Amino acid sequence: MVGLLVSAGLLAAVEGTFRLAGWAPPGSEPSPLLAQEIDFSPVQPGPEPGTLTFMPMGPHNPSTRWTTTTTVAPAGLRIVTFGGSTTYGLPFTPFESFSGLLQRALVALGTGRPVEVVNAGVCSMGSAGVLQVVRAVLRSGSPDLLVVYSGNNEYLDRAAIALAARETPPLGRWIRGPLGRLHLFRWLDIQLRPRHAPPPVGPHPTMGEVLRRPISPEERQIVQERYRRNLTALAKAAREAGVPVLLSTVPTNLRDVCQACGDGQVGEVEEKALAAIEGAAAAGDAGAVKRLARGAEALAQDEEGQVRLARAFLAVEDTVAARRHFEQAEQLSRFAIRGDDLLREVVREVARAEGTALCDAAHAFDTAAEWGIPGRDLFDDPCHPNLRGHLLLARTMLDCILAEDLLGLDAREPAQVAAAAASLEEPNAVDCPWRLDRSGTTARAPATDSVRLLPCDLALHGHRAFMAQDLAGARGFYRAARQAGGAAGWLLLDEGLVARLDGDLSGARASFAQAAAIIPDDPDLLNFLAITGGDAAAPEAGSAAGSTSP
Q1: What is the residue extent of each domain of the chain?
Q2: What is the pLDDT averaged over residues 360-378?
Q3: What would the pLDDT profile of 483-494 be if each residue is shown by its tens digit?
Q4: Which tens digit of pLDDT belongs to each residue from 294-347?
Q5: Do the Cβ atoms of 298 and 278 come closer than 8 Å?
Q6: Mean pLDDT across the stretch 397-413?
Q7: Smallest Cα–Cα separation from 330: which of 319, 320, 343, 317?
Q8: Are both 45-168+203-259+337-424 and 436-531 of the same fold?
Q9: C or N: which end of the chain has fewer Cβ atoms within 10 Å?
Q10: What strand order describes the sheet that includes 43-45?
């Protein structure tokens, strides 16, 4: 008995030491969803001396398709962006995610130094994973600024944990529960598990199962507190490292989403009440809509009912009431595919409590959206912005960086700010989108499938190969397009962009240098050349292959 008491006392003392020393485990309870496992080192030595690679693909997470190889010592300013699939850039290229667009805007601003925005987003990643990646980047990534846009995936891991617990034996649940909350247990688990070990044996729900699993109001509260802890730990880690961090709220598609519509939630009495309200809205009778809605409030305690009330108010141009019901619908949604206003408020609270810079992207989307309620005008689906949405995110973050002076740029001249804003205008239609970094959605099909492809068709095939993860194929198509008489300068830029994401920094430098000899005044190209450590040089003989145009 004495031995047990002494052992318990020693364990308690060690646990207390961990907590007093401020050691924190890397995030909260790990998610059993394989797509959320950070099963790789986020920053690793690059393929050449003096280089490193951000976000190499992990053995169990296929979501990271593109990596970034760069110099160990930044050539100028290095900003790293963190988050899930929106940060990553789906469904666009990395260059037309808000991360790539932010780099373009800062180059146009004229900082006097090269600017590198490293995209450290991973599809499906929540704040627990973001915290791990942030700590790794702070250790060895030499960032000048961290930008965090994370909030759409917070409910995913909660649903996955609940699904896994249902299939876990009692002993496993006890280990994952009380023991898993001890700092000592988590530290031993980190030390003893191999760095790239396969995922622990046990249930691993699929993404489809997680997305279909309802989230209760009680679980939403748990997720909010977990989200708060992760963001707080992230802000403290950045402060201790002396690196500024910009926390962003995460807007969602409020107006054009109803995940539960038509699934039988609405009962007969509620249906009659909603039908009467919709009839009054169709007749343009705002007074009747407001009067009937008061009587239906107690009935419409489900997502579909709230969405239908919101749309009725929108039909009579009562946007304040419409927004209130759309927000209630978002919080009543039973499924875990986007964030909500409760999580957005957590970001604001953490920024205030930790003295961290805040970028309220959700407010910017409200301001820009039709009726002040974001919908398909800014989003492709419930949570992923369209190209206009990514342009707006980049402009909003640029404004926040300048307002908070997070990069030490001081006040910029109005002309410089105007040039940066102009770089983020929606692109005009062009005959051929030669540039991969300005191509819009690269799912656009080539104009012809004839045996003899035109140079533009070959370039578009290169863009499509890039989006399909066939990086070698993309480079081959760009070379073929040059040889067929395409715009050599832009195609060499494309080859360099793909080579860099393929880990071939030498090839990227060579392509950028050749492109710069043809297009010596393009600021984005010169910036890419600088951040890869290259120098402008004359192109190799025949590299323009039949074209003297850019």
Answers
A1: 45-168+203-259+337-424, 268-332, 436-531
A2: 95
A3: 999 999 989 999
A4: 888 777 788 888 888 999 999 999 999 999 999 988 888 877 678 888 899 999
A5: no
A6: 88
A7: 343
A8: no
A9: N
A10: 43-45, 51-54, 68-71
Q: Give the C-alpha distances (Å, rounded to integers) separating 427 from 269, 391, 422.
A: 50, 10, 10
**Residue 358: what are its φ and ψ, rounded to 5°?**
-115, 135
Other residues' Cβ atoms within 10 Å of the Cβ of residue 157: 28
CB atoms within 10 A of CB 225: 11
Three-state SS at 51: strand
Residue 76: Cβ within 10 Å count = 15
pTM recorded for the entire structure: 0.82
The three-class DSSP label of residue 389 is helix
Residue with tokens 């995936």: 153
Buried b (16+ CB within 10 A) or exposed e, 384-400: bbbbebbbbbbbbbbbb
Strands 245-248 and 77-83: unpaired
Is the pLDDT confidence value at 23 over 50?
A: no
State phi, psi for 145 to the nearest 5 degrees: -160, 140
Write the pLDDT tens digit of every residue in 463-522: 888 888 788 999 999 999 999 999 999 899 999 999 988 888 889 999 999 999 998 888
Tell me which DSSP letter residue 385 carries: B
Looking at per-residue pLDDT, the higher value among 363 and 64 belongs to 363
What CATH topology corresponds to 436-531?
A: 1.25.40
